[in-house]
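hi! just following up on the protien thing from before. the input was this:
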Amino acid sequence: MTFLRSALFLLWFLGVTALLSILCIWALASRRATQALARVWSRATFFGLRVIAGIAWEIRGTPPAAPVLVASKHMSMWDTLALWLALPAPAIVLKRELLYIPFYGWFLWRGAAIPIDRSAGAGALRKMRARAKAALAGGRQVLIFPEGTRKRPGAAPDYKPGVAALYGQLDVPCIPVALNSGVFWRGFTKKPGTIVLEFLPAIPPGLARAAFMRRLEDEIETATARLLP
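and the predicted 3d structure came back as:
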């Protein structure tokens, strides 16, 4: 039954993605239209998850409305879609390679992306900070996945220094986010249940780099462990 549900959801997801990408290519002309389309796509995906795969979701804590840094655990593609719906106007730090994907990458670039070339070293970090500051100045939240890639539930954490660089330069609170999406969204397989997305108390600006990294990792990992079965 799980296999059948997962296969039907994949067909739904691919169909919705293809249809919206082709019919709404005009949205690339406007950042606001692109962002609106991304919300329609996310809601359509979550509708399919609930109706076809039996996966619901809930938010715990209060999503920030102010321009802040949001640092989230990352287990599946679900995380990006959910945070796009939960946050008013996120600017997402992501790998530059994702922008090369036809349609998907184009919409990311136009609507939400702060791309980073991880092979470019210090130059990439400078560009990331400049774009993040511009996003905050525009009233948006800057969303980063501190481990840089998806992690299986229970895997050892591996937090990268990019989040500390942003925290130190932006001088805004950092909102940690815990979640358990990897329990239910496992690549192709979709397991029925309820995914929890939890916004944790803010970490104030001004902490030393090492202290910030310790606190961020401890708070995200402790809260995530509570959400896992």
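The longest helix spans residues 31-53.
The radius of gyration is 17 Å.
cheers
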